[in-house]
Amino acid sequence: MKNKDQVEIVTYNPKYQKSFKDLNIEWISTYFVVEPNDVKALDHAEEYIINKGGEIFSAILNDEVLGVCSLIKSDGKEYDYELAKMAVSPKAQGKGVGLLLAESAIKWATKKGASKIYLESNTKLKPAIKLYEKLGFKEITGISLSYDRVDIQMILSI
């Protein structure tokens, strides 16, 4: 029997689609401005992420989504997947949910044969940057940016 207080990381399930969008809109609007690329990916996650070989991960506790993230399959040569759209509910922040999500995503990408995972972030998100560094991501430059809010790019070599 599963411990009811244990967070479970699950892969894409349409029933969690609304939480994927809501959590992302909530965190983006707290720190930044929601951009057209956000809306496109969040409103059409299946089309833009799942159907193109990516995955969406949800952190579930007692049937509530506490956090989400996605891996978007790259069509370029610089990296295999982009770790994107990571958001954790304010009430669950600082409790290791982001780490669980990122570790699950990295494990999933590794099983798919990935050698590099890329991400874009902003340096004012200090806890997120610390998390990425802890996971082994290193700062890079030179890949064209998807969002105005991005001021740091990182890559993980698996």
Write the topology of this structure:
Elements: E1 8-10, H1 17-31, H2 36-43, H3 45-50, E2 55-61, E3 64-73, E4 81-88, H4 97-111, E5 116-121, H5 126-134, E6 138-140, E7 152-157
Parallel strand pairs: 4-5
Antiparallel strand pairs: 1-2, 2-3, 3-4, 5-7, 6-7
Helix pairs in contact: 1-2
EC number: 2.3.-.-
Protein name: GNAT family N-acetyltransferase
InterPro entries: Acyl_CoA_acyltransferase, Bact_Acetyltransf, GNAT_dom
Q: Please write the CATH class name of the domain at 8-113.
A: Alpha Beta
* SS field, number of helical segments: 5
| Record field, number of beta strands | 7
Largest pleated sheet: 7 strands, mixed
Rg from Cα: 15 Å
| Class of secondary structure makeup | alpha+beta
Looking at the structure, what is the overall shape? globular
User: In CATH, what is the homologous superfamily of the domain at 8-113?
Assistant: Gcn5-related N-acetyltransferase (GNAT)
CATH topology (fold) name of the domain at 8-113: Aminopeptidase
In N-to-C order, the SSE pattern is: EHHHEEEHEHEE
Q: Percent of residues in beta strands? A: 25-35%
Strand arrangement, major sheet = 1-2-3-4-5-7-6
State the helicity in percent bands: 25-40%
Mean pLDDT level: 94
Poorly predicted segments: none
Span between termini: 33 Å
CATH architecture of the domain at 8-113: 3-Layer(aba) Sandwich
